[in-house]
Structures are given as C-alpha cells and as structure tokens.
C-alpha cells in the first residue's frame, strides 16, 4: 500500500519543491565563482523539466478522474450492479483506448453496444458473461438491439448455444438467464432451420431436473486476473463511491435513494435461490417459444418435437391446475404456456388442426379452461384472456365438435365482460360476492374473441343473440356512441356487422336505431391532420440519436483525451436528459399512431356495417330516408364519402379496405338514379381513380397473398372494377 501511495502521490511533492526552488533561485552560487557559472541555467532547466513532467502527471490524473467520474455516473444512471458494472465499463474504456493506439479510425462509430456484441465472439467465459450482462441492460432500458445482433448469425448462434449450457455452476445459470432474455427479444426474427440445435437449446430451458437436483456453487469459473491499471482504476472508483456515499448520506438526497435502489437490486440478485433462477429460465424459455411461434415454419418444428410439445401442454392437461394457479409464480408459467399454445393452434394446415383436435378431445384441458373462466378474478385476468383466446380458436374450427355447453359458457363470459358499461364493475367470478375491477386489456380481449366467434359460424351468432337477456344488439348499438372507448366502439361495430350478416335482426330496429347511429358516426367522424414529421423521421436522425445516446457513444479522442472525456461527461448529463425527452416523445408518438390506427379500424368497420345493412337488411327507400335525416342536403353524404377516400389515399391495407367500402356504398346508392348526380357533382369517381393509382401496388401484394387476407374481405372486388362500375353508373 505504501509503495502504491508513493507511486501515485510522489510527483506532487516533486512539483511543489521544483516550483519553490525555481521561484527562490537561491542556489548558493556567487558571481565570483566562475566554475559554477552554468549551474544556475542547468538547475533552471532541470526544475522546468520536473514541472513539465508534473504538468503531464496532472493532465493524466485529470483524465483518470474524469474517467472514474464517467464510470460512476454511468453505473448510477443505468443502475448497474456493483458486482460487475464498473469493471465492464472500465474494460470498455481500456479496449477503446487500445484500439485507438493501434488504429484511431477503428473507434469511429464504435459504441458500448458494439463492444458488448463483440464479447459474444470471444472464447472467454468471462467475456461472454460481460457481453450478455450489458446487452441485458440495453434491453431493460428499451434500447433496440435486434438491428445489430441479427445480421451477425454467429453471435445469435452463440447466444442460442449458451441456452444449452447446463453445468451446475451458479455462474452458468446467470449467463443462461441473461442469454434467454436476449434471445426472447430476437425470437420473432429467428428461423429455427438456420440455427442447428436451436430447438434442443431452447428445450433445455424447460428441463429443470439438473438445476433443481444438483448442488450449485455460488460462483462460475474463477475470474481472470485484471491488469494493474484496471485494478487501480477500480480501486479508485470504489474510493470515490465511498466518499460520495458519505456526502450523500449527510443530505439524504435523491441520488442516495437511487444508489440504495442499485445496492438493493444487487443484493436481491445475489441472494436469489436456485428455484428463482429455475422459474426465470422456464418463463424466458416460454417467451422465446412464443416469439418463435409467430413463424409457421417454426411452429411445425416445435410441434414435431414431441418432448418439447409435451412440456408446453403439461399445464393445460394438469389435473391440479386450478388449485396450483393460486401460486403466483406457477400462474406466470401457466400464462406463458397458454400464450405459446395459442400461437401454435392458430397455425393453418395439419399442424394447427391436429393440435386443436388434440386439446378439444382432452376433457381435462377443456375443463381447466372452463374453470378459469368460472373463477374469474381468482384465476387472474391474464389466464382468463388466454383461456378465452384458446377456447375461441377451438370453437372457430368447424371440424371440432366442441360441446354446446362450452360454447355457451364462453359466449356468456365474453358478453358479461365486454358489455359491462363504463364505470360498472361486474363480478367476474360466477356467484362471487365481491366485484372485480376489469382492465381494458381483458375487455378488449373479450370483445375481440367474441367478434371472431360471430364471423364464420351459424350457431355462434345465435348464442350471442340469446345472451345478456336478449339485449345484446341494443347494448352493442349504444357502445358505438362517440363517448365510449374507440377500441370498444370498433369491436362493437364488428360484432354487429357479423350479426347482421349471419342472423335475422329486427329490420325496424335496424332502420330506427342501428343505421342512424352508424351514419351519425360516419358523417361526424373527422381525421386529425398531423404534420408530416410525425409520420416519418429521416434516417439521419436515427443514426444521430444512436450515436449521441449515453449508452452508445463513449469513444476516446487520441489527440485530446481530456477534452474527449469532458464531452463524454456532457453526454451523460445533457444527452441523458435528452434521451429521456426523446423516449417520452417517442411513447407519445406511438400513442398517437395507435389512436390513428384505432380510428381507421373504427371507420372501416362502420363503413362495412353500413354496406351489410344496405345489402341484406333494409330496402333502398328506408336507407334513403335515414341518409336524408342524418346527412341532409344535396350531395352531403356523397361529399363525405369522397372526403374519406381522399383522406385514405395511402398505400396500406386499411386504407385500401376503406376506399373499396366507400366505392361499394357509392355503387349501391348510384343504382338509384337520384344519387347519380350527387356523386357526379362531387367528383367522387375522379377521387376514386386517383386513389386507385396509389393503392394498386398494395392491392397487387394482397392478391399474391389472397389466402392470408381472406377473412378481412378486402381483396375483392378489385378497386379497378369498382371504378369501372362507378363510371358506367354515371354514364347510364
């Protein structure tokens, strides 16, 4: 310790002595002593050299202190654990410095994320662990890592291989859990056929025998010994943290609370037992499978692995499922399993059909899902949503003879949840005394699955019509009102459309209540005009934001290291706040985009409902009467349809559907000569023609994938055919 202190602090007294001597200049030399005439300039030169050396030492100390401050600030801001956070950031700084000495151009654009990804390519266990730790931090803070990881197939393969490291060391459990979280983020873009052994590695996350039965050690492989400069920097960092902590404890400010949160998080992670890690591995494994199941090729690979499929199905087949889901950790596992099952049974072809038939013929599985619906809030909203989704898929498969009792119970629960009025808190458990508050997600899921049930079956709409005291249509009509949630309105309109198409509704009610409400919402709907910048951002901005983000720009400048460290510190303090503002703006923009999407969905389903009512339920004269009441004046309704066409002149599937529906409604109305002049005066066909030019490309793509879009009924008739028919109607 003494030698190190002398090594670090020795230059300081040398600087002080040299400065004192060069100021005093009392070297004891007289003018008469000519033999020492050169001694004074020699001593001056010597002391100046010592001062220059001291200045370099002070510069180095300043850079070192700034680096320590940078590491401390970064670790605190992003809540990195003391166990490894500082050491990893210091390794990154030293790696960047070494690269800069070898080739200054090599550090251009190199970020902490690049460094973390490069560590995955190392043969060192320590490097791999450091890499996945940092990537996990990026993911936790919402940073997009897929665009950098996916192009490197070897790195993705390494992450998948890590999932299969089932040795008994605690360190391997940590690295597997972290790698699983990263792979879960990439799963939707992973094709199993491109990664040999991926199925086995993912399956190993669900195979917990080794983890539970083996004696585990607290540590993984022994850490490699760090070089002296790094050890010194880490020691100084610890001393700085201790000094800062003492000062903060005096004032008890928010920084102290933040540091305590980091310490508490670190202690909690270190104190986790084998069971916690085991449960996390299972949850992450199921999340990976859920992402993989978004690709139908992956679904076939998963279903063709009997051992894996049996583990996925185990919860739904369990005889003790209802009793066991009272344990929150097990309920999370069951929820993850149901999510994977739902993805798998949605697959078209033999794979999904075979799995649906297998589940529907298993009485225990069906009974478990019915019991979850019966228990309501006791089972949890997540499990209720999953049970509704799975049972709905089974009910939609006409080749499956799902019992009438199960169908009625499902529809009853969906109606009970979805038709509850705003502010109403219905009891979700049948016969329960205490009401349970519903989340929007549960209500949307109930409505969405109910809408699916009302589409392609003759019996399901009958169950719906007879439910909720035979007041379903009236309640759904009220939900279309603009005062309600826009997603509820869209779902209610979709259900009404399906009921109009497959059931016999009271035509008088449709004329007096339903159609006027629908036309009122169509005529009064307005699309908020948004600045162009809200829809698209130039790529340069994204690149700039990435380079300026505090987690992505920690480069060192070889020519001016001190200035570079100051810039890095500015990035931590200023760009950190900017990043928070950008994240807030991004979430705000995402919310606006979601609202715009929901508005278009509502507009589309209202137009589709109008067309179904006109074609199947009421006469043209009755339709004319309602139009004249809700859109009085010459060409008012025609002008509204034209406005909708102009607003949706964008190359998207939703816009194509909306424009086609407007054209079809116009065609139906122009068959009565009294409306031909309305559409002609408004220039409706010209607007339709302009939209046809823009939408032809997306229509071509949808024709190529016509089977996929078959349910949405937006492929045919072609927009060009609608335009031709409209022109003929104007001429005739």
From TrEMBL:
Acidic residues composition bias: residue spans: 583-595
Positions of transmembrane segments: 44-63
Keywords recorded for this protein, A-Z: Membrane, Transmembrane, Transmembrane helix
InterPro entries xrefs: ARM-like, ARM-type_fold
Stretches the record annotates as Disordered: 254-274, 525-597
Compositional bias ranges of the Basic and acidic residues kind: 264-273
Protein name: Uncharacterized protein
Organism: Urochloa decumbens
